[in-house]
């Protein structure tokens, strides 16, 4: 897979509003946030920071954000974004105005979404906080799309400075620290190479023994492969499920469901999967359309504790839940 150039930064998967979480979940998140506030100074001293989140109805991590002037908002904690995105109502509440090249002419910045590149006005944030993580001045894009109920801000994981990004989806926390990833070796079900390219995180995968690369995307609710990967790996279309899908999405969408015999990720092997096949404009813009590429979304990732070890270029999964929507059968080789 070719490198992503600097002007190709900002792959953002759009968001919708989080569903109403249960009382227990809200109490847990409030407790975690309270602990973060009360131990903020020790956490900073030891280099360990915590961002609590809620998993919404699509299993995406939704965080509480505090911007300048004390304005609060929510956003998606996104591993497949490299630029902070602020929606219009939040920007208005904060009193933010776009950076201007000259009076009346905003400076534009390119943001990548599934539909391809789109230019947005540039913002300068003076402060942004989540949990006990406090960011200084940073660039952001102003989402100028028409105001739609449910559109969220985006907080890219790439702006967080730490050697280890430790997502515990069961406890609904992201912990940032240096050193080695926490946890017993016996609890690992996968350890493989991590590739961080222009702020995006990739891992090597195999489908039916054909090698490819997967984008780690906590902003995507689903896992899918591109058609090139599906063709190279000789997948077979599941006609019944494809018909059901087209009945929901409409015939104009070029999507299908492919039967995958095996999906290998490090020492973990999943068998007998049905995966969505899709070719978003984003892949074409990044010149990935002729390469075997897939996206690992939250229907897969949320069933594990996921650790991104930047210093050692390692991707680690620890099993947290027994059920997995796309894991019909899983076999894990021993990790020495």
From TrEMBL:
PROSITE patterns: ASP_PROT_RETROV, ASP_PROTEASE. It comes from the Bacteria. GO terms for biological process: proteolysis. InterPro entries: Aspartic_peptidase_AS (IPR001969), Peptidase_A2_cat (IPR001995), Peptidase_aspartic_dom_sf (IPR021109), Retropepsin-like_bacterial (IPR034122). GO terms for molecular function: aspartic-type endopeptidase activity. Pfam families: Asp_protease_2. This is Uncharacterized protein. It comes from Hyphomonas pacifica. The lineage of its organism: Bacteria, Pseudomonadati, Pseudomonadota, Alphaproteobacteria, Hyphomonadales.
């Amino acid at each position: 897979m070719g490198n992503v150039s600097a002007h190709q930064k900002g792959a953002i998967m759009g968001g919708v509003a989080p569903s109403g979480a249960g009382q227990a979940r809200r109490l847990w998140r409030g407790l975690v946030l309270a602990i973060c506030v009360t131990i903020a100074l020790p956490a900073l001293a030891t280099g360990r920071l915590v961002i609590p989140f809620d998993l919404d109805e699509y299993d995406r991590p939704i965080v509480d954000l505090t911007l300048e002037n004390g304005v609060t908002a929510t956003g998606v904690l996104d591993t497949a974004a490299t630029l902070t995105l602020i929606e219009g109502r939040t920007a208005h509440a904060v009193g933010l105005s776009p950076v201007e090249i000259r009076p009346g002419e905003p400076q534009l910045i390119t943001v990548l979404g599934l539909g391809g590149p789109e230019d947005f006005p540039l913002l300068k944030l003076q402060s942004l906080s989540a949990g006990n993580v406090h960011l200084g001045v940073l660039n952001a894009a102003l989402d100028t799309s028409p105001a739609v109920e449910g559109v969220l801000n985006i907080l890219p994981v790439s702006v967080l400075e730490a050697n280890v990004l430790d997502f515990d989806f069961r406890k609904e926390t992201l912990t940032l620290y240096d050193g080695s990833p926490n946890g017993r070796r016996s609890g690992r079900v996968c350890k493989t190479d991590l590739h961080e390219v222009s702020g995006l995180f990739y891992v090597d995968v195999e489908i039916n023994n054909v090698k490819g690369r997967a984008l780690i995307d906590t902003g995507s609710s689903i896992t899918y492969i591109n058609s090139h990967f599906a063709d190279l790996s000789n997948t077979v279309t599941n006609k019944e499920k494809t018909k059901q899908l087209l009945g929901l999405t409409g015939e104009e969408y070029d999507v299908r469901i492919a039967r995958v015999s095996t999906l290998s990720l490090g020492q973990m092997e999943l068998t007998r999967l049905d995966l969505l096949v899709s070719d978003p404009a984003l892949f074409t813009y990044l010149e990935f359309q002729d390469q075997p590429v897939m996206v690992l979304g939250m229907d897969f990732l949320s069933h594990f504790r996921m650790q991104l070890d930047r210093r050692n270029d390692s991707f680690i999964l620890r099993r947290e839940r027994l059920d997995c929507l796309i894991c019909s059968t899983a076999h894990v080789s021993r990790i020495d």
